[in-house]
From TrEMBL:
Classification via InterPro entries: ABC_BtuC-like (IPR037294), ABC_TroCD (IPR001626)
Function in brief: Involved in the high-affinity zinc uptake transport system.
UniProt main location, coarse: membrane
Record-stated family: Belongs to the ABC-3 integral membrane protein family.
Residue stretches spanning the membrane: 14-36, 43-62, 68-86, 93-114, 134-157, 178-195, 201-221, 228-250, 256-272
Compartments where found: Cell membrane
UniProt keyword annotation of Transmembrane present: yes
Keywords: Cell membrane, Ion transport, Membrane, Transmembrane, Transmembrane helix, Transport, Zinc, Zinc transport
Protein name per the record: High-affinity zinc uptake system membrane protein ZnuB
Organism: Streptacidiphilus monticola
């Protein structure tokens, strides 16, 4: 019975859309997440997951497409955090101060949306934002997700070498003419765009896992930066594929949960490997 259900799911257009969009979203998340972990900015990614929820609820409460709120909110707050931080890096004190407030604001917009006429047509919108709705992506949204994720991936690869240099030793990088703050700002914009896009796949609550778990596993498996970058992207894509396959085999299993379960298992498995002497990544 399970085999028949899986075969039926795999043949459906919604599954093809989820697989295509999810692959590119995971690719972008793995690439961005590698630098997010390497630069010790995981807390920023956690904050943006709350912003994604708040932005989406604000857009819905105003009667707009929730993707407007996702992208505008995540990018705007990412720039704000970088602007008040040091050399384009968000300050943990600033993030912590805004953390709970953003979630509370999201709850306010959710209440506003669900008690308005606009919210009566789709009472599950808040749940979709929190836990993802990758099976709900149509052809147009799938194409948009692929294009956005492809642009983010190319941008990360384009700035990878100078960003790595600025990450390893920002003072020396600045002395050699690397625009450290501009790179930091650009990187956080890419994090914001990725957060907005990935929320549609795994939801704002689980967003951090897709950004951090594959990258964390890659950093435990290799200390060579560009191998780690490729490994983080590959693991993210493989984990998304595994999650979608598990959700197809087990119809009651939400795809976002299955994706995060695969990511968590892979990260946990890295602890079974004998630890190696870690070296500081080098830019060259």
């Amino acid at each position: 019975m399970t085999t028949l259900a899986a075969a039926s799911a795999w043949s459906q257009p919604f599954f093809h859309h989820a697989l295509l969009a999810g692959t590119f979203i995971a690719l972008a998340s793995g690439l961005v997440g590698y630098f997010l972990v390497l630069r010790a900015q995981v807390f920023t990614g956690d904050a943006l997951s709350h912003v994604a929820f708040t932005g989406a609820m604000a857009a819905l409460a105003a009667g707009w497409d929730l993707r407007i709120g996702l992208f505008v909110g995540c990018v705007a707050v990412a720039l704000l955090l970088a602007g008040v931080g040091r050399k384009g890096r968000a300050d943990d004190v600033v993030i912590g101060s805004a953390f709970a407030w953003m979630l509370g604001l999201g709850s306010f917009f959710l209440t506003l949306y669900t008690t308005s006429r606009s919210g009566s047509a789709d009472g599950n919108a808040g749940t979709s934002v929190l836990f993802g709705s990758i099976y709900g992506l149509g052809g147009g949204r799938t194409l948009a997700a692929v294009l956005i994720a492809a642009v983010v991936s190319l941008a990360v690869l384009g700035i990878a070498r100078p960003l790595l240099f600025a990450t390893v030793d920002e003072n020396v990088a600045a002395a050699r003419g690397v625009p450290v703050k501009a790179l930091g700002l650009l990187f956080l914009v890419l994090v914001g765009v990725t957060a907005g896009e990935a929320t549609q796949a795994v939801g704002s609550l689980l967003l951090l896992g897709l950004l951090a778990a594959p990258a964390g596993a890659a950093l435990r498996l290799t200390d060579r930066p560009f191998q780690g970058l490729a490994l983080a992207a590959g693991l993210a894509v493989a984990e998304l594929w595994a999650g979608l396959a598990a959700a197809a085999w087990i119809p009651r299993c939400p795809p976002s949960f299955a994706i995060m379960a695969a990511a968590t298992l892979v990260y946990a498995a890295t602890y079974l490997r004998r630890p190696t002497i870690r070296r500081q990544p080098v830019a060259a």
